[in-house]
Each structure stands twice: as structure tokens, then as C-alpha cells.
């Protein structure tokens, strides 16, 4: 997943929550940010996630450590994470299909070249 694709996921996530992304430390902002960070960690490195939010990697680690208790005790966090996780999975699934399709297309090109070479080697009867 590229950073551009991740940024689109983040934008879509905030649209789904109907909030404007902000660096303010209001609880609803921190909750939203923590949930999408953890969802993105399934696909991206710690450093890349931190860079997307213009934060230090330690902040992402903090949210990772708090994730299980947030899921259980922080009202609304589980719903936010579910939305974020579904968005990340849908995009990564689509990207996986695109990568597989690119591989198949490369194989077809290779086989077409091989076919052409073999046809040229067959003597005409």
C-alpha cells in the first residue's frame, strides 16, 4: 500500500465518522486517530504510519499498547476501529487482486513471446 492510498483511506475514514481531521487533543480526535493508526498497522510499518500523521513512532506504539483496553473500555473506540479496519481491509484486498492481475498479465506476455518463438522455429510443411 502506498502512502497516497493510505491517505485516501484516512480521508474516507474521517468522512465516515463525519469529523474533520485535526491535531487537537479532544477525546473524539484522539479516539479516531488511534483507531485508524492501529488499522493501518496491519499494512504499514510503524514509521510509515507515524509519518502519515506527522507524529513520532512512539505515539503509534503507545496506541498499539492501549488498543486492547481501548476496545473494551473506551466508548466508541471499537466502532471507530471496526470502520477503520474494514476500510483498510477492503483497500488492501483490492490491491492484492491488482497485484495478482499484474502477475497474470506478465505471465501472459511471457507465454505469448514463447508462443511466437516456437511458431518461428516450427518448419513450414
Low-confidence stretches: none
Shape: elongated
Percentage of helical residues? Answer: over 70%
What proportion strand? under 5%
The radius of gyration computed from the alpha-carbon positions, rounded to a whole number of angstroms, is 22 Å
How can the largest sheet be summarized? none
Number of helices: 5
Given the helix and strand composition, which structural class is it? mainly alpha
Number of domains: 1
CATH topology: Chromosomal Replication Initiator Protein Dnaa, Chain: A
Task: Kindly report the average pLDDT value.
Answer: 86
The ordered H/E elements are HHHHH
Q: Find the count of extended strands (DSSP E, 2+ residues).
A: 0
Per CATH, the class reads Mainly Alpha
CA(first)-CA(last) distance: 52 Å
Attribute tags:
78% helix; Chromosomal Replication Initiator Protein Dnaa, Chain: A; 125 residues
Walk me through this protein's architecture.
- The chain has one domain (3-121): Chromosomal Replication Initiator Protein Dnaa, Chain: A, CATH 1.10.1750.
- It has five helices and no strands.
- Helix 2 crosses helix 4 and helix 3 packs across helix 4.
- The longest helix is centred in the last third of the chain and has 45 residues, at 77-121.
- It is mainly α.
- The chain has helices spanning 3-17, 27-40, 46-52, 57-73, 77-121.
- The chain is 78% helix and 0% strand.
Amino acid at each position: 500500500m502506498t502512502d497516497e492510498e493510505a491517505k485516501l483511506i484516512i480521508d474516507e475514514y474521517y468522512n465516515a465518522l463525519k469529523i474533520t481531521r485535526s491535531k487537537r487533543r479532544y477525546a473524539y480526535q484522539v479516539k479516531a486517530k488511534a483507531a485508524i493508526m492501529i488499522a493501518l498497522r496491519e499494512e504499514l510499518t510503524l514509521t510509515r504510519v507515524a509519518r502519515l500523521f506527522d507524529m513520532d513512532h512512539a505515539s503509534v506504539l503507545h496506541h498499539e499498547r492501549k488498543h486492547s483496553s481501548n476496545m473494551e473500555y473506551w466508548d466508541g473506540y471499537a466502532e471507530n476501529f471496526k470502520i477503520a479496519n474494514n476500510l483498510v481491509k477492503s483497500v488492501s484486498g483490492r490491491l492484492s487482486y491488482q497485484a495478482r492481475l499484474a502477475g497474470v498479465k506478465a505471465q501472459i506476455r511471457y507465454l505469448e513471446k514463447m508462443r511466437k518463438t516456437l511458431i518461428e522455429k516450427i518448419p513450414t510443411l
